[in-house]
Design the sequence.
């Protein structure tokens, strides 16, 4: 049942499962983000995916948006991530200037091409 959410089990330690097997990048990380944005602080989510890029994308999502990546594991082609939704009051810190994903990096920071000699 690709992309289907399973309801959490009853109890204080309820964990929701998000089955994203079969979906390709960027859908697994986008659906994970949407679910975490709707989750209560401290809620736990188990994400299952077969997209190899999720091994990079989902941990990056957790770091950049303040969610806690509790565990990640691989079983054959299936990647499983256990995530705790961020606590209230999280404020993302800007990335350091000069990092590849830094949002303030503009064309002025790019190396200039050498000019062509006139013939």
Sequence:
């Amino acid at each position: 049942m690709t992309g289907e959410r399973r309801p959490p089990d009853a109890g204080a330690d309820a964990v929701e499962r998000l089955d994203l097997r079969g979906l390709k990048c960027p859908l697994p990380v986008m659906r994970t983000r949407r679910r975490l944005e709707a989750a209560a602080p401290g809620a736990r989510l188990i994400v299952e995916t077969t997209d190899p890029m999720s091994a990079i994308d989902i941990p990056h999502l957790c770091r950049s948006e303040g969610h806690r990546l509790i565990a990640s594991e691989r079983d054959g082609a299936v990647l499983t991530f256990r995530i705790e939704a961020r606590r209230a009051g999280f404020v993302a810190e800007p990335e350091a200037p000069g990092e590849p994903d830094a949002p303030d990096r503009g064309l002025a920071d790019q190396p200039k091409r050498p000019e062509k000699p006139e013939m």
Notes: The CA atoms of residues 40 and 85 lie 7 Å apart.
